[in-house]
Amino acid sequence: MQRVLIIGATSAIAEATARIYAERGSRLHLVARTPARLDTVVEDLRIRGAADVGRDALDMNDLGRHEAVLDSAWAALGDVDVVLVAHGTLPDQKACEASVETAMAEFATNATSTIALLTLIANRMERAGRGSIAVISSVAGDRGRASNYLYGSAKAAVSTFMSGLRQRLSKRGVDVVTIKPGFVDTPMTRDFKKGTLWAKPDAVAAGIVKAVDKGAPVAYLPWFWFVIMTIIRAVPELIFKRVSL
């Protein structure tokens, strides 16, 4: 029976992932900002077959409470086999350009808070000498684009942090998995026009669980985003700065 901690558990992708683990009969502990929404997800997962589901409310930017919430999760589960960090926002790029305060707040939510959590989680998993840490980053972190470079820079920071963490923990029996979704049809992207490149949360969730099971270092989801981003990264800067992306 797997013991799974999911942080940012009320996001569409995280909730879909939790359902897969629940159907496996896993024990789950969920962390998210809104208690009422958490309660709804907890009840759904119990119905779907989870052996047990606990929860804690946390504003991820409240760095001072990270340790206490992790203590609660570890106590509830006894030990942790899988951690999925899945919280984040999709900033308004124009608003970030107009306001230093907005830009820094969005970067804190999407990068700093994640790095703070991972620092504490990594130390716990390292002491245990086992388990998997998976974090949802984004293909947006592979190259800065004018349309979302604040978000992209935050995800690039997370991806780079994960790369170093993977190298460190690979010697300690802990898998570190960076998840890089492309376009996903979620409430966060409801105002975007959808096309053939868009994936559903359930499909991305299945890819996350598969990547964690395999201990894959990096998973582009769906897979074709690896090809797309390889091409985008290869475009010379002289040409790239003239295109609109």
Using brief descriptors, characterize the structure shown.
about 240 residues; single chain; Rossmann fold; seven-stranded parallel β-sheet; alpha/beta; globular
| CATH fold annotation | Rossmann fold
CATH architecture: 3-Layer(aba) Sandwich
Shape: globular
With strands numbered from the N-terminus, the spatial order across the biggest sheet is 3-2-1-4-5-6-7
Low-confidence stretches: none
Return the CATH class. Answer: Alpha Beta
Rounded Rg: 18 Å
Distance between termini?
44 Å
Question: pLDDT average, as an integer?
Answer: 96
Note the total helix count. Answer: 9
Number of strands: 7
CATH superfamily caption: NAD(P)-binding Rossmann-like Domain
Main β-sheet: number of strands, strand sense, barrel status?
7 strands, parallel
Structure description:
The chain has 9 helices and 7 strands; from the N terminus they run E-H-E-H-E-H-E-H-H-E-H-E-H-E-H-H. It has a 7-stranded parallel sheet with strand order 3-2-1-4-5-6-7, sandwiched between helices. The model has no long low-confidence stretch (mean pLDDT 96). It is an alpha/beta fold and 245 residues long. The chain has one domain: 3-Layer(aba) Sandwich (Rossmann fold).
